[in-house]
Amino acid sequence: MNRHAKALEKANVLVDALPWLERFHGRTIVVKFGGNAMTDQALQEAFAEDVVFLRYVGMRPVVVHGGGPQITRQLERLGIASVFESGHRVTTPEAMDVVRMVLVGQVQREIVGLVNAHGPFAVGLSGEDANLFTAEPHHLEVDGERVDLGLVGNVVKVEPGVVQGLVADGRIPIVSSVARGTAGEIYNVNADTAAAALAVALGAEKLVVLTDVEGLYGAWPTDGSEPSPDDVISSITADDLEAMLPTLSTGMVPKMDACLRAVRGGVPKAHVIDGRVPHALLVEVFTDEGVGTEVHA
What we know:
Elements: H1 3-16, H2 18-24, E1 28-33, H3 41-56, E2 60-65, H4 68-77, E3 84-85, E4 88-89, H5 93-116, E5 122-126, E6 133-137, E7 140-142, E8 145-147, E9 152-158, H6 161-168, E10 172-176, E11 178-180, E12 186-189, H7 191-202, E13 206-211, E14 235-237, H8 238-244, H9 253-264, E15 269-274, H10 280-286, E16 293-296
Parallel strand pairs: 1-2, 1-13, 2-10, 5-10, 9-12, 13-15, 14-16
Antiparallel strand pairs: 3-4, 6-9, 7-8, 11-12, 15-16
């Protein structure tokens, strides 16, 4: 391909993106960043590029992040056991100190640095800042019995003013999923559900959840084989997803439940996409095909 043909191909790509640029200009998109995309340097850098691209073309990206693998590694270094119940990390006061330190002091700073390599955009926030998130204890029942998860919380109130102010100033908020309770206690909040709550409070156009699979599978093979990409559900209504939730694996439940909460709360569409694919965020936003699973009302 000669230089002229390459230039023309690039121009065609930009023109193809025009309908989405028109539709999403000035709109807020909340992205939950997690999974393998957070632990692979090349994927981290690609994600930062995607977020900055959205900002430069007139969108308003907001990032909410977790950090499960990083938290587990730090707990192991300190000799603190990691205990999980139905996909939730049991968070003792001792573990909560580590969760807070890793999310706010390490993971958040790494994301802020990657984004700010492209300009003075990213600002780190905790859910504690300006009372962004208020949480209450998360109660879990397994086989009819209540399980004590310690300092694991559910977001019950969002004060989005600090995020709105940053976005209006052209910044990209990077939010850690830690929240304060009404009595001053600190809670470890699932980043998927925190992102959904924030998307609703901001009146976001989209919620995009990055995960470690290709999307929501219609049926997982029972013979031990890997599922086929053809088994991914490309689009599903909120009602159908709600009926399907009890059958999902513990890892997918919080992600799909977050999408359901977002759509029920007024966000037009929510997406679960494969964060292992470089620039998956741009593919989702700027193409007809998209990737992963879309949830809509």
